[in-house]
Design goal:
Blueprint: H1 2-33, H2 43-59, H3 62-77, H4 79-95, E1 105-109, E2 117-124, E3 135-141, E4 148-154, E5 158-160, H5 165-173
Antiparallel strand pairs: 1-2, 1-5, 2-3, 3-4
Helix pairs in contact: 1-2
InterPro entries: COV1-like
Keywords: Membrane, Transmembrane, Transmembrane helix
Protein name: DUF502 domain-containing protein
């Protein structure tokens, strides 16, 4: 009976991440495919990918950059839209593009001796506009969650990590159990 319990646990440990991943990919695929109502499954998904590529190609053009700047300024001036647009734009740029924000992994000492630390990413080195001359902004992602906390930390409590930012993020998000 003990062996059956072990087999069940091993099967569960293997199947849960596989099935959950397949299910999430399936949901994303069907949602995107459902944007356009084609009779052929996958046609809407391919059209969406094609549209994204086409917009990427067009916006790489110098003339399109002027249009993008105009749209950017317009959205930045609309009261409620500006907050939403700039927040989403900053979040997307934090993960991809030229202005990646999570590329400076650090350990933050929570106690005076530096024995208790948390891992995070410096998102802003200069906080003088807030009157905080010797502090930095550190984002602390949460494990198993797409949330986190922004903390303001005295610079002397920061230890830069000579580590791959993606590996540090993976370690944090997995709750420290991520294997290399």
């Amino acid at each position: 009976m003990k062996k059956i319990g072990q087999y069940f646990l091993h099967g569960l440990l293997f199947l849960v991440p596989v099935v959950a991943t397949v299910y999430v990919v399936y949901l994303i695929f069907t949602k995107i495919d459902g944007i356009f109502h084609f009779a052929v499954p996958g046609a809407g998904f391919l059209l969406t990918i094609g549209l994204i590529l086409a917009v990427g190609f067009v916006t790489s053009n110098l003339l399109a950059k002027r249009l993008l700047t105009l749209i950017d300024r317009l959205f930045a001036r609309l009261p409620l839209v500006a907050l939403l647009y700039s927040s989403i734009k900053d979040l997307v740029n934090a993960f991809v593009g030229d202005k990646k924000s999570f590329n400076k992994p650090v350990a933050v000492a929570l106690d005076g001796e530096g024995r208790l630390r948390v891992l995070g990413f410096i998102t802003r080195d200069d906080l003088q506009n807030l009157g905080l001359t010797d502090s930095v902004a550190v984002y602390l992602p949460q494990s198993y969650n797409f949330a986190g906390n922004l903390i303001i930390v005295p610079r002397h409590r920061i230890t830069p990590l000579a580590a791959n930012p993606a590996e540090v993020m993976k370690l944090i998000v997995s709750g420290g159990v991520s294997a290399r």
